Amino acid sequence: MTERLELIQGDITHVTADAIVNAANSSLGGGGGVDGAIHRAAGRELLAECLTLGRCPTGQARITKGYRLPAAHVIHAVGPVWQGGSHGEDALLASCYRSAFALMEKHGLRTVAFPSISTGVYGFPIARAAPIALREIRAALERRPELERVTVVLFSEADLKVYQQALGA
Ligand code: ADP
């Protein structure tokens, strides 16, 4: 199972996979951080498709095509904004990962790359987010043998180290 999970440092817009996951906001209208990078790399058609989907509640996800990205699809997952930790943030973050895997299953997708959802502008402490993300990814890999590869793409070396430590813990 662990050999189907990889942690890398890099830019998720360069990853070739059946799907990459976007840390989106509820409007699905694009934004900063990884969201902005994905929209810039995919081109304007991505925004056009997103705007047909309506709002996406926190903790849920929607799927679109990948357009000019090397990834075939984008799964837009809406993570929680950190509000101190006692407002359901952990459960909502876990729900993002589960919703993304449910869409993978529905669409028959086998390879996926995730960014570190909610740990940028949304302020979720990465040391708390990493074990939640990895727990949900491991659970999906255990349940679904058809999943070939799950990659977590960390933007900085410091973030990669946090995930590596959480993976070993
Ligand atoms: P959120 O609003 O969910 O916090 P952000 O985009 O602000 O989303 O940050 C989520 C994570 O994505 C952060 O760790 C940020 O450093 C990282 N990130 C930003 N750009 C990229 C990129 N091109 N590829 C991978 N990760 C990225």
TrEMBL record:
A Gene Ontology molecular function term for this protein is: O-acetyl-ADP-ribose deacetylase activity
Q: Enumerate the InterPro entries for this protein.
A: Macro_dom (IPR002589), Macro_dom-like (IPR043472)
The UniProt record lists the Macro domain at: 1-169
Question: What SUPFAM superfamilies does UniProt report for this protein, alphabetically?
Answer: Macro domain-like (SSF52949)
Q: Which residues form the signal peptide?
A: none
Q: Which PROSITE patterns match?
A: MACRO (PS51154)
* Domain of life according to the entry: Bacteria
- One short Pfam family name for this protein? Macro
Protein name as annotated: O-acetyl-ADP-ribose deacetylase
The protein's organism comes out as Corallococcus aberystwythensis
